[in-house]
Amino acid sequence: MARAALRFVCSSCGAAVPKWTGRCEACGEWNTLEPETPAPGVTSRRAGRSAGRGVDFVGLAGETPLPERVPLGIAEFDRVLGGGMVPASAILVGGDPGIGKSTLLLQAAARLAGAGKRVLYISGEESVAQIRLRAERLGLRGAPVNLASATVLADILAALDAERDVAMVVIDSIQTIWDETVESAPGTVTQVRANAFALIRAAKTQGFALMLVGHVTKEGALAGPRVMEHMVDVVLHFEGDRGHQFRILRGAKNRFGATDEIGVFEMTGRGLAEVANPSALFLAERHGNVAGSAVFAGLEGSRPVLMEVQALLAANPGGSARRSVIGWDQGRLSMLLAVLDARCGVKLSAQDVYLNIAGGLRVSEPAADLAVAAALVSAATGVPTDPETVFFGEIGLSGELRQVAQAELRLKEAAKLGFARAALPRRVAGGTRRIAAPDGIALAEYGHLSDLVAATAGRVPMEEDER
């Protein structure tokens, strides 16, 4: 029998080509083509397909019950999932090596097993003895979790088929599982795609929730074929800086709930501890009388989070000025520096600019523009911002300030933490409704960035609208 022809498949877009090239012509990505041997008997010819039975179509109208959820017992984890995991769903958890993925899932498995549910934990990276040692460090030695160490897909599927009343199955990790019928090494595109499909099909058929741990590339994306992210129901990213104790569980996809929700954890000697009030923790070490600092009232999913934006300027006598950013978009910083220069007369082109979001959190929403601008102006003038003021708002290229969503939710979080004032964009006449500020919060509304520059530099008093 002739050997199946070797082809190369792009791990980013899934395009297949007969020979290897450095760049995928379909998506333009470099070094993403990996070898794949088609399974025996697989053909794309229409004549080789068997006659199907057809499918039944129904209308949009009809009664569909809401999915039943099973709480994991970890409030921050349940929050990101939308209130708990849904039976027969597939959840993919990715993150950097050593960030705490296995620790988090072992804790979730122990909580769920302690609630009387049957939980299976299958590891392809560690032995049972190693998992027991971690459980002992975390204080989970007595949890009724069923452990196994296996890498062969056929053995895992046979074991799952023999089990009954299983609530959750953890596979750590999908890159270590090996299908003997696929002629490629574990972790390759072909293996990961085939193994994920088989395990997800088993979860849908038998009704248990499947937790897949996925490795990430050096760029931070989930390793393996992108089609795997489309196959699963939920994609979660576990983020964090090893230099900080905080860990962020962020939802990137959720077919049963909202995306962009976050859960905040703190890495301790006893594992991952939930952080119910991350704003207080992110601002715990803030010093309000230092120039170059401003508090941003952000929003992560439906959760308001207050964090400190820090800016530092250093003279650069010659050469090109340096721009270093941690936790924010560097391109947006360049835009803000250009707006400050062209629209407000704040010249920073000859200075090195260092920007940091304290606490290791990464901010992506444009509402952080105003807080970043306030920190930059404060660092440039040497005048500290008001320590009792929070900032939020988007800045346009002409220097105008634009309103952002959920302003009242941000203000409530600021009032809860004792802030007395908030700097935000001015309402447009005849536009949005009046913002209902909480008791004790005074609003300073600005229409243009130059107004904030003048107020921060102390040249004019802040105009407050006492509510």
TrEMBL record:
SUPFAM superfamilies, per the entry: P-loop containing nucleoside triphosphate hydrolases, Ribosomal protein S5 domain 2-like
Residue sites binding ATP per the record: G95, D96, P97, G98, I99, G100, K101, S102
Transmembrane segments: none
Signal sequence range: none
Pfam family, one: Zn_ribbon_LapB
Cell membrane recorded as keyword: no
Motif (RadA KNRFG motif): 253-257
Family the entry assigns: Belongs to the RecA family. RadA subfamily.
UniProt xrefs under NCBIfam families: sms
Function: DNA-dependent ATPase involved in processing of recombination intermediates, plays a role in repairing DNA breaks. Stimulates the branch migration of RecA-mediated strand transfer reactions, allowing the 3' invading strand to extend heteroduplex DNA faster. Binds ssDNA in the presence of ADP but not other nucleotides, has ATPase activity that is stimulated by ssDNA and various branched DNA structures, but inhibited by SSB. Does not have RecA's homology-searching function. Plays a role in repairing double-strand DNA breaks, probably involving stabilizing or processing branched DNA or blocked replication forks.
HAMAP family recorded: RadA_bact
Name the UniProt record assigns to this protein: DNA repair protein RadA
Annotated organism of origin: Acidiphilium iwatense
